[in-house]
Fold this sequence. Notes:
Layout: H1 2-24, H2 28-39, H3 43-64, H4 66-72, H5 87-92, H6 94-97, E1 108-111, E2 121-124, H7 126-140, E3 151-155, H8 158-161, H9 167-176, E4 178-182, H10 188-201, E5 205-208, H11 210-222, E6 233-237, H12 243-253, E7 257-263, E8 267-272, E9 278-280, E10 285-290, E11 299-305, E12 316-325, E13 337-344, E14 349-350, E15 356-357, H13 359-364, E16 372-379, E17 384-391, H14 397-411, E18 416-421, E19 436-438
Parallel strand pairs: 3-4, 3-5, 5-6, 6-7, 16-19, 17-18
Antiparallel strand pairs: 1-2, 7-8, 8-9, 9-13, 10-11, 11-12, 12-13, 14-15, 16-17
Helix pairs in contact: 2-7, 3-4, 11-12
Amino acid sequence: xxxxxxxxxxxxxxxxxxxxxxxxxxxxxxxxxxxxxxxxxxxxxxxxxxxxxxxxxxxxxxxxxxxxxxxxxxxxxxxxxxxxxxxxxxxxxxxxxxxxxxxxxxxxxxxxxxxxxxxxxxxxxxxxxxxxxxxxxxxxxxxxxxxxxxxxxxxxxxxxxxxxxxxxxxxxxxxxxxxxxxxxxxxxxxxxxxxxxxxxxxxxxxxxxxxxxxxxxxxxxxxxxxxxxxxxxxxxxxxxxxxxxxxxxxxxxxxxxxxxxxxxxxxxxxxxxxxxxxxxxxxxxxxxxxxxxxxxxxxxxxxxxxxxxxxxxxxxxxxxxxxxxxxxxxxxxxxxxxxxxxxxxxxxxxxxxxxxxxxxxxxxxxxxxxxxxxxxxxxxxxxxxxxxxxxxxxxxxxxxxxxxxxxxxxxxxxxxxxxxxxxxxxxxxxxxxxxxxxxx
Length: 440
């Protein structure tokens, strides 16, 4: 069995080399070395690189896209003069946002999963994907990933699962040495089968939705199943990584969880290092916080993607809230740091006084409450919230009073909290579970 695993890993390494040579050219190893060199550079060198790339991107956007030519009226190199790009602008003016230097055949269509509403369609180009992949290769190595080594993926994005079970999917996962567990359908039978397979194939890393990772870890814990594999690390991505998700995963799998933050529209935004700081992907994008002082006051995150020339994303309001830090990380990386990532704007509650309340405050109130199987808190207005609960045999009436009290403590004593007991809280179309939703 070890010989078979070693042979498959060697084959996968060769296949990865062939794939990258085909996509990026025979000099892809040199490209990756240059990528790593920039990520490992000083903060001053990184800032100078970003300034140069921003100037080039803004010039391209003004000269080749109808949207920015009309918006700006005159060419500018001042990023702050450009109004943020909203999702509604992309939906309403998709064609005008596309660069005229790219033909329809040269544009690659992509779309979000629709976790905040209707899926958003947009375009990217091949260079964007090549550069994105090089950055992912670099950051994923922080968690121990390397070409060809077996990896368990617990995922659920429809675009990624398209053709699941099809021969093309099976060939792709085979040469990549990946094992996919569908995060949309985590049945006991599927999780048990994957656990047994992983005990044979011994993955080196896991890439997963946080909620799916937690569900898998809970299944193993509840059934007394102990993994035989020794992981180098776990990469959590695409959802908020709650503390109890991280804690259980690290106990069950005996490996550190590295939080990765990104979006389909702009690629990998930031990655957690071994010291627990979120480092911004300053090679591929420029990140701003829309607040008076981004180092002390949280605000909405604005992303300028530096590589997608087919459809420039400039000061794109991605829908998340965060804050910056100017510290130097003990890990040695001088990449800028995203000090706090507070989650979706739709998951961040607001009080009448204008204060922002991170959805994590509410989810923490449900930790270790054995009587609740699922929950969802919805802020309908400043004065009213709806708390949906799926309860089990361990439910006690005093839990309801405790939860209502905790919600009112932070949102105001006059906030009406309506508790609804339901049989199930369905997943949205994106497959990403929403625990807190604010409509304010």
